[in-house]
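Chapter summary example.
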Amino acid sequence: HTPHELSATDALAWLCSEELGLVVQVDDAKQQAFLDLVADHGLRDYVSAVAAPQAAPRVCLAGSDLRLDYALSDLLEVWSETSWAMQRLRDDPACADSERQHLLDPDAPALPWQVPFEAEPKRPPVVAKRPRVAILREQGVNGQIEMAAAFTRAGFDAVDVHMSDLLAGRRHLSDFAGLAACGGFSYGDVLGAGQGWAKSILFHPELAAQFGQFFADESRFALGVCNGCQMLSTLTPLIPGAEHWPRFVRNRSEQYEARLVGVEILPSDSIFFAGMSGAQIPVVVAHGEGQAQFDGDPATAGERSGACMRFVDGTTRYPVNPNGSIGGLTGFSAAQGRISIMMPHPERIFLRRQMSWYASDWDVDASPWMRLFHNAHQFATR
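The structure predicted for these 382 residues follows.
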């Protein structure tokens, strides 16, 4: 039976049934084809038309003696009330209130999509020029596979390098055109996220000298993402021009944040963002300690720190800014743009199919973030 054939009581029972079911939205022009498909599989008797979409943000239920008509915002308010109350007790109350307001605001901004560039060059990278990039990881890091895949697609030979390889002398940074410090949970994040990773370098004189020489070499580049971002931000004594980079502390929300959010690429000298300034693109974040904390005047933090990326809102409004960083700043550059760090994970969505949402007119296999890795290849083969 369908709702309009039932009494009020039966209609509510039908809607609230916990039996296994599936709702499929089908274009009007394809309804018969859909019905033919389910009939071919012997399921026609189990399929009924139950609803139709409407433009107005309202939910309407019609039964033989039942008429319900609710604003979608009213239903969302009731549905989310318990979760909001629990969140206020468990997390930062102001963040809980801000997220609820964002949920219920019909004019809340959607994810941005402003991509004034090509994701990949029209001609593939020259195979004969495959610079080597060290995909650097430590105990607990889990983002090395995506990072290696993105750099490989861009034309690099990606080499797995564990910190133990450098300590034991099996690998040396001088053998690589660049390094990428990956995200994850180094040391289980128990030593201040990436700080423990950084201290394993700073407290080892020979290793600190090796990293210092690598960072000073103007022919080499380095990228730090998430835990790798936190790690490199603690190595500022070794990185030219990074003395004003921020520290990264616990998120304002008091929670691990795993979301798809919008970021804006700021004008900078970062080699990774060449030709990308002004773009606004969704990106994955997954961090518990991503709030940038600066020394000095917050009003000039972006300029002093070489900021190259921010959450599009440009404020601390949660959840558009998931960690509470001043000005939404979440990416930074130094050493004439050769070394960049960022809290979001572009390597996790370098392909369009990895994005949970993208603009309907984006019809290429790569996501906009693939441009970042091609920029690195262009720098390494210039």
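To summarize the output: The longest helix spans residues 72-90.
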